[in-house]
Amino acid sequence: MADAFQLPLDAFYHREARHPDKCYLVQPLPDGSLERLSWAEVGEQARRAAHWLRTRDFPPGSHIAIISKNCAHWIITDLAIWMAGHVSVPLYPNLTAESISHVLEHSESVLAFIGKLDNWPSMAPGISDAIPTVAMPLHPEGRFDFSWSDLQACSPIQDSPSPAPDQLATIIYTSGTTGLPKGVMHNFGNFGFAASNARTLFSVTEDDRLLSYLPLCHVAERMFIELSSFYGGPTVFFAASLDTFLEDLKRARPTVFFAVPRIWTKFQMGVYSKMPAERLDFLLKLPIIGPVVGKKVLTGLGLDAIRFALSGAAPVPEALLKWYQRMGLDVLEVYGMTENCGYSHVCRPGKYKKGWIGQNSTGVEARIADDGELQVRSGATMQGYFKDPEKTAETITEDGFLRTGDKGEQDGEGNLRLTGRIKEIFKTSKGKYVAPSPIENRLAVHSRIEQVCVVGDGMAQPMALCVLSETGRQDAANSSRSELESSLVKLLEEVNAQLDQHERLQGLVLVKDTWSIENGFLTPTLKIKRNVVEDTYSSRFAAWSDSRQPLVWHD
């Protein structure tokens, strides 16, 4: 099965030979200029770095870390590691020193590439003196054992290595909403299977433009940006920073774009901050003016050239999908996990079904277990967790199906609907089970709610902790507060009317905090860490519940 598709390095060599002078990577530099690298230049730099890596005399298949935000040389470094016969271990660029130390030690990394980072002084202590460091072209101030120029002083390797499908390519450490991260092992065959088949679903071509801004160390961005560039040949633009994100987006004007739901919500909130939701909704309903307004909004966001818009990592509220549809943009949901290269289910264009994600991706088998868990099997399934055979055995069944941990159902056409996480389902004090995710999705339709987490383990009734958007916070601080409160109480009533008695919310709690990656409430892929939310506010749960108020302001 593995030899029926092209493997990643072979796909890169094909692109490099097909259009060596075509612009491949566009990197913003600190001085505001842009570095444009052709396929030939990327190949040459990777080959020089691979030569240097070979001179280090590491055992074949050694593990080499990449600690950097997204940048052109992240991809070049990954290519070099593979060409030299080693395994890349990407780390999130915002980990604590303690987490870095854990991953480097657990992964047995022998070398670390250090690139574009925002808070290097707090991260550096996590790297043992026994692990040599290489400074990539965009790197923080500090002392490193080697520089990129040292690597580029080597002559390019003359061969074009082609690792076997079963050779380990990478160990991806999960961001994890609970506990220590696990090292997911993927071989070249996993990547080749997923990338080759994904290209048949969404034909990324040499004429396309992609914007890389979600962490490349995460499997979704790795597949969507790095692997799809090898297989399709598009030009990849990089975002300079969060502050310049909209500017970067407008420069790239991507034709294929992937985001997580929180990003799609952020775009909407940004539009609403400039134009009240009611006025925009009114204009969009007008027969002739509506499409023009929608196009203008998309142009303002840099999303006007998109052929395919994709969303993954968490469910998208139905109302948000409809909002983009009215703008003239169909956002298609995708579903997958680190453990299967993010390749599992996707909504095909024209096959959208309300409330459902989409159909099995090509070559993927899916089944629903007796306890309602979705299980999937394909050539993209991981080789296991590094140094954790026990956890591997718990996660992969004897017949090769991956236990996703998600509860779901499929219809006769293969459409998938997720109904919650098996481990996130909690039991109220009345002995009734509640799945929080579907309730959260119903609440997230409100234009002033940016994040929501439903809690209720051991409580008489669940309640929802909500973080207001920036506009919502402004409303709360001025004369619009009473109007905001009324709309939120109305939302609560509407949602409760759609829920079973045991699921109905006691009330909404508007927390004063913002939930971010920096303060530990979100994973690097912007998922809410439920355990952190519960640990932070649990001492107040009883008082909030006893108040019997539909709306509680967290002071």
TrEMBL record:
The Gene Ontology terms for molecular function here are: ATP binding; long-chain fatty acid-CoA ligase activity
Q: Which GO terms describe its cellular component?
A: membrane
Among PROSITE patterns, the record links this protein to:
AMP_BINDING (PS00455)
**Is the keyword Nucleotide-binding in the record?**
yes
Cross-referenced Pfam families: AMP-binding, AMP-binding_C_3
Q: Note the Gene3D superfamilies from the entry.
A: 3.30.300.30, N-terminal domain of ligase-like (3.40.50.12780)
Question: Which reaction(s) does the protein catalyse, per the Swiss-Prot or TrEMBL entry?
Answer: a long-chain fatty acid + ATP + CoA = a long-chain fatty acyl-CoA + AMP + diphosphate
Keyword annotations: ATP-binding, Nucleotide-binding
Query: What InterPro entries does the record tag this protein with?
Result: AMP-bd_C_sf (IPR045851), AMP-binding_CS (IPR020845), AMP-dep_synth/lig_dom (IPR000873), ANL_N_sf (IPR042099)
Q: Where is the AMP-dependent synthetase/ligase domain?
A: 14-386
PANTHER family the record matches: AMP-BINDING DOMAIN-CONTAINING PROTEIN-RELATED, LONG-CHAIN-FATTY-ACID--COA LIGASE
UniProt name for this protein = Long-chain acyl-CoA synthetase (AMP-forming)
Protein's organism: Pseudomonas segetis
